[in-house]
Design goal:
By secondary structure, this protein is mainly alpha-helical. It is built from four helices and two strands, in the order αβαβαα.
């Protein structure tokens, strides 16, 4: 059991590292032209992105989730408006809630 737990721990570290690097690269891409991705509106990242995204060819996307990030990564050949629209649709598609009944 210890081996599996250790592997899961290491995998989580690797996945978080990849996600942080990906989000950082997307944010830097937004600063030089494109979309800046932030978690919530009004936080430090979004406030900084607002300063960088004043030209018309840049967008700020709030409320990022993994499907949204993946769609943006695959949409580099689209215009900024098309890429952001596709990312927002993809992000909304995976938002849901479930009621899990108590079986105990």
């Amino acid at each position: 059991m210890g081996l599996i737990t250790n592997m899961r721990s290491r995998m989580q570290v690797v996945m978080w590292t990849i996600l942080v690097l990906f989000v950082t690269s997307m944010a830097i891409g937004g600063l030089v032209g494109g979309a800046s991705i932030t978690d919530i509106f009004g936080g430090s990242p979004s406030n900084l992105a607002m300063l960088a995204c004043r030209p018309d060819d840049r967008r700020i996307v709030y409320g990022a989730n993994l499907p949204m990030l993946l769609k943006l990564a695959k949409s580099r050949n689209l215009t900024i408006d098309e890429a952001v629209s596709a990312a927002l649709c993809s992000g909304r598609q995976y938002l849901d809630s479930k009621n899990i009944p108590n079986t105990g």
